[in-house]
Amino acid sequence: MRIDLHTHSTASDGTDTPSDLVRKAAAAALDVVALTDHDTTRGHAEAIAALPEGLTLITGAELSCRIDGISMHMLAYLFDAEEPALLAERELVRDDRVPRAQGMIAKLNALGVPVTWEQVARIAGDGSVGRPHLATALVELGVVPTVDDAFTPDWLADGGRAHMGKHETDPFEAIRLVKAAGGVTVFAHPGASKRGRTVPESAIAGMAAAGLDGIEVDHMDHDPDTRARLRGLAGELGLLVTGSSDYHGSRKTCALGENTTDPEVYGEIVRRATGAFPVPGTGGR
Fold first, then answer.
1. How far is Cα 109 from Cα 123, in angstroms, rounded to an integer?
2. I need a labelling partner for 158 at 20 to 30 A (CA). Which of 34, 70, 133, 277 fits?
3. How far apart are CA 189 and CA 72, in angstroms?
4. From CA 15, how far away is CA 27, in angstroms rounded?
């Protein structure tokens, strides 16, 4: 089995629609794919309707969190998307995205960059607006050559000249909310140091004690040494180890299935979840 547990669609900051994403996942010979858009489950229905036969969909989301001033992401799988407390928290995070983006546009304008809200809104489309959409605008304007080059202290990185904070959930609260909604939690790309400061291992140990299920080890932003260290940490803390592409379509260079999760780990995630079930493909439309 080939299992990719971290992908994004146009429901957040990917460039493929949910239906195109599942079709491409099947074409990439994946058996299981998780749709984990940022702080939203809005793409799930479309993905399910288009799900090709032979491909199983894991419904999920990537939750925006912050601990001790460090931004982090929490993958949540197979939770009840209508559970009121978790739904309210996701909406609170999403609702803060527009004023945050507008604030960053104002900062970019003050730096002499002629980006506009209309341009960013066009790029975001129906997705939850975020920094990747502003980064794409900077590429369009010729300010930076690639989206990755926008995530530096000069521009949009945490603490950067045009950065602006937003509401982010405490990870311990995120774990509690997801568990209460019957879901499973995995700390996304915990060693991605090129994105900014990373969460210390002591804090990860605290999350494990609070019910964190796993950490994403095999990820494009982790070099071999980082993967080995995180794999060892997961063993010490009794955490599941996942691997994923973090696919965003053409917005990132990674391919679907570039990193994958062991079938036994996938089985354990499914076994632990009580909020939702994997969706088998029936041919789509």
1. 18
2. 34
3. 8
4. 17
Entry pTM: 0.87
Reference 132, options 23, 38, 258, 5; nearest CA is 38
Q: Tell me the pLDDT band of 169, cut-offs 50, 70 and 90.
A: very high
Q: What is the pLDDT of residue 99?
A: 92
Of the listed ranges 29-33, 45-49, 161-165, 257-261, the one predicted with least confidence: 161-165
**31 phi-psi bin (left φ>0, alpha ψ -120 to 50, beta other):** alpha
Structure tokens at 130: 């975020």
CA 85-89-94 angle, to 5 degrees, is: 145
The C-alpha torsion from 281 through 178 and 18 to 15, rounded to 10°, is: -150
With left for phi above 0 and alpha for psi between -120 and 50, is residue 265 left, alpha or beta?
alpha
pLDDT-based confidence at residue 243 (cuts at 50, 70, 90): very high
